[in-house]
Amino acid sequence: MKTLTFKNGQTIPALGLGTWKLKGDECVRAVSAALEIGYTHIDTADAYDNHHEVGKAIKASGIPRDALFVTSKIWPDEQQKSAVIPACERILSELGLEYLDLLLMHWPDRSIPFADTLGEMEKLRAQGLIRSNGVSNFTVHHLQDALETGKEFVANQVEFHPTLNQKELKAFCDEHQILMTAYSPLARGKDLDLPAIIELAEKYEKTPAQIIINWVLAKGMAAIPKSATPRRIKENWEAQNFELSEEDVAKIDAIGGANRVVDGTV
Ligand code: NAP
């Protein structure tokens, strides 16, 4: 299992399970299947309304807390100074956990100074309620302003897949040692039928999803594909078991595009 290291020295398993849209028993089943297969990194968010179910699956797995990596995110309505710490405390109580490995600002909101939210996250780190903090859906100009606050943040979770490969944002994050996590890495299924992906799947005798996930990992990023289907959860996990050649990584890089599948409502 590949791990990546944040600039603060903490590590994150490169491949995690996304949980958007997973609710109720389906969520418990999917997270339980993932933990059984070997995933240790689970991505949730307040907006997904599934903390209880994610927590239930974690508890039932019996996996020691320090072997897991759990990310959650706070929505802009709780990013103001007075709301951040209570929001995190509530998230932890819903998950039944003592701490989060990573807490993200889910979307930027220019009406709330980044320094306020990041400053409160600093206090959460000092209190041991989170190990690391980061941002999500930040563009280069948001990141520049966040960096100017002088407050620590180590990760940016953004939409990233073959038809939206965010070259400038990736270069900026690399330059500033901000680890990028690819959300919607399969473009919610839309990039699985691309001719170049199908061709590579045939060449490596892998599935299109495995080719795309392997490509994200080859770029030094984390990936959090979501699936409710145990067979696919396993298939995605096995995307780590081979290596695309540099030329084939470049072939996928060359696809490019501006095909956004996420509109800011989750
Ligand atoms: P995704 O992972 O790109 O795609 C999920 C879709 O692909 C589901 O319909 C799933 O179907 C299908 N799928 C999964 N594995 C497959 C496989 N091996 N073969 C064929 N189809 C497969 O999209 P996403 O859920 O939007 O993104 C992943 C995670 O990123 C989310 O769950 C969430 O944790 C995170 N996210 C974060 C943000 C943010 O603002 N920070 C925004 C969006 C997403 P089944 O479930 O039916 O198997």
Description:
The chain is of the alpha/beta class and 266 residues long. It has one domain (10-189, 220-228): TIM Barrel (Alpha-Beta Barrel). The chain has ten helices and ten strands. The chain has helices at 24-37, 51-61, 81-95, 114-126, 140-148, 167-175, 195-204, 208-218, 230-237, 246-253; strands at 3-5, 11-13, 17-18, 41-43, 69-74, 100-105, 130-136, 155-159, 179-183, 222-223. An eight-stranded parallel sheet has the order 3-4-5-6-7-8-9-10. α6 (167-175) links the parallel β8 (155-159) and β9 (179-183). 46% of the residues are buried. The mean pLDDT is 97. Bound molecules: NADP nicotinamide-adenine-dinucleotide phosphate. Residues 18-20, 43, 106, 136-137, 157, 183-189, 192, 207, 209, 224-229, 232, 235-236, 262, 266 line the site of NADP nicotinamide-adenine-dinucleotide phosphate.
Quick synopsis:
The protein has about 270 residues and is an alpha/beta fold.
CATH topology, by name, is: TIM Barrel
User: Secondary-structure element order, as H and E?
Assistant: EEEHEHEHEHEHEHEHHEHH
Superfamily (CATH H level) name: NADP-dependent oxidoreductase domain
How are the strands of the largest sheet arranged? 3-4-5-6-7-8-9-10
Question: What molecules are bound to this protein?
Answer: NADP nicotinamide-adenine-dinucleotide phosphate
Overall geometry comes to globular
Compute the number of strand runs: 10
The whole-number mean of residue pLDDT values reads 97
The helicity comes to 40-55%
Largest sheet: 8 strands, parallel
